[in-house]
Amino acid sequence: MSLSLGSGTRNLRKLLAMNQILLERLCGVVGADHVLTDMDLGAYEEDWNRRARGKALAVVRPADTVQTAQVIRICADAGVGLVPQGGNTGLNLGAIPDGSGTQVVLSTKRMNAIRAIDVANLTATVEAGCVLQTLQEAARAHNLLFPLSLAAEGSCTIGGNLATNAGGTQVLRYGNARELCLGIECVTAAGEVWNGLTALRKDNTGYDLRNLMVGSEGTLAIITAATLRLYPLPRTQTTAWVALPGIHEALRLLQRAQSILGPSLSGFEIIGREPVEQVGRHFAELARPCGDSSTPWFVLMDVWNNLDDGRAREEVESLLAGALESGEAHDAVIATSQAQSAKLWRIRESIPEAQARDGLNIKHDISVPVSALPDFVMELQSVLAAAVPGARFMTFGHMGDGNLHYNLQAPFGADADAFRARYERQVNGLVYEHVARFGGSFSAEHGIGSHKVEQLASSKSPTALWMMRGVKQALDPRGILNPGKVLG
Ligand SMILES: Cc1cc2nc3c(=O)[nH]c(=O)nc-3n(C[C@H](O)[C@H](O)[C@H](O)COP(=O)(O)OP(=O)(O)OC[C@H]3O[C@@H](n4cnc5c(N)ncnc54)[C@H](O)[C@@H]3O)c2cc1C
After folding, report:
1. Closest ligand 1 atom number to CA of residue 485
2. Engineered SS bond to 183: which of 197, 233, 405, 467, CB 3.0-4.6 Å?
3. What letters, b where the CB count within 10 A reaches 16 and e where it falls short, cover 305-332?
């Protein structure tokens, strides 16, 4: 007896055969050990926050730029979407595949070499999969500083940092990843390598392709290497933790610190009472260093100096003494050792982990002009407190850059998922309306990914969207690079 196959079954067989050919071709380029299909791909398919999980056809791990170009050509031939992934610490679902099981994740983890450090030119050329902390340590070994610094630095990669134009805690002095990047090497959607690894500080020769790639979240090309700025390693670090009666006082302290300390002020972080208490609950050794449980706001500031003459410390002491005397600060501590500085920073850096332990909250990564930040926070807080009774305000961020991680956590004892399901849409609407009214950005650091596609479409002007679509169409006409991300 013979069975006739339905067209659905025939299509499925054809698809499986095509996938088989694709996987064999990929194995031919990177080796079978680096085309992952049947092991647990969870770590590549799920985002850091465990907010979403996709399904990949395969994970491919090329060893170098040449292999990356070949992988892209094979996927382009087959019309298969590619999702670049570095450390998978991104917070907007940009590095995971969709749920279709048809996209290939291209992991850059094997391309992790530091190709060169030019001490006299103050530059490092590194591959995309190099972990940020590895580069920081390599620079330090030469008495140099790579200043990009963020809580995920032990896992995130230079490629991911550039693709998201990462910020972090030293932007005030050194800028975002974009400002730290002099040159880029990348592979286009057609599988062509562009070697733009210039180490020049001045180069006005046509459109700035490097800056187009920075912040493009893997939708325009796959970054394979970059030449980055280094700085002389500061000789002293003065770190202070300050307890404040209000957020307006934090702005006044920032203004005074900037005028007294100038560019030595490298970090100025604001942290609300709730996140400080939350960190203390989850990490007993990181209890609040000063102030009490009624202190509404804290500032963590860092001053880096290239002279080791004690003057920076004296200036910080006199700045804080003035603030205490005038009542603009309640309490303050200044670290007396490197270990104490590191401990103060650990409190700040442990906030994301402490929040994750309390269940996923309603997250925002927004910015407003620094001068407007206190009014923005106070106005929004009163609106949200009325709209979402009992919600905990997990507000913290890079005040010196006007950038806040403005998160709302479920009330104590409430179910985090039910809280998000009930309030996320309403809260987002209120937050983004306020952000727009204050001339701010709905995504200051983390990009768009697939999570904020709708918000981008509704916030950007038609002209801006038309230009962005034109760029995408020119560089990736078949839409194989990170499909569904940024422009949707
Ligand atoms: C605890 C924690 C703290 C954080 N703090 C900050 C912070 O202070 N400031 C900040 O800006 N971000 C922060 N982030 C977000 C995130 O860590 C950074 O955006 C980081 O730069 C992402 O790097 P990654 O290698 O993990 O990239 P991934 O998550 O792997 O990818 C992020 C995006 O870049 C694309 N991509 C990755 N590699 C490449 C490549 N080689 N070529 C092209 N596209 C690529 C991906 O497709 C995706 O769209 C934090 C995240 C966590 C978990």
Report:
1. 49
2. 197
3. beeeeeebbebbeebbeebeeeebbbbb
Q: Which fold has domain 236-437?
A: Alpha-Beta Plaits (3.30.70)
Nearest to 347 by CA among 333, 360, 359: 333
If DSSP codes are grouped into helix, strand and coil, which group holds residue 143? coil
CATH of 9-233+452-488, one of 3.40.50.10380, 3.90.190.20, 3.30.460.80, 3.30.465.10: 3.30.465.10
- The Å distance, Cα 89 to ligand 1 centre, comes to 5
Could you tell me the distance, in angstroms and rounded to a whole number, from the CA of residue 168 to the centre of ligand 1?
11
DSSP string for 198-241: ---S----SS-HHHHHTT-TTSS-EEEEEEEE-EEPPSEEEEEE
**Ligand 1 atom at minimum distance from 91 CA:** 15
Cα first-last separation, the chain: 49
* Ligand 1 contacts CB of residue 176 (under 6 A): no
For the chain, the structural domain boundaries read: 9-233+452-488, 236-437
What are the respective helix, strand and coil percentages of the chain, to the nearest 5?
40, 20, 35
Q: Is the pLDDT of residue 1 over 90?
A: no
| pTM of the shown model | 0.94
pLDDT digits (tens, 9 = 90+) for 162-208: 999 999 999 999 999 999 999 999 999 999 999 999 999 999 999 99
Residue 466: both structure tokens together: 């038309």
What are the φ and ψ backbone dihedral angles of 211, each rounded to 5 degrees? -70, -20
Q: Whose CA is nearest to atom 16 of ligand 1?
A: 90
For a ligand 1 pocket test, name from 65, 71, 91 the mutation site with the most ligand atoms within 8 angstroms of its C-beta. Answer: 91
Alpha-carbon distance values, 92 to 89, 164, 314, 377, 446 (Å): 9, 10, 42, 23, 6
The CA-based angle 300-268-339, given to 5 degrees, is 45
Task: Tell whether ligand 1 has an atom less than 6 A from the beta carbon of residue 446.
Answer: yes
Distance CA 305, CA 264 (A): 6
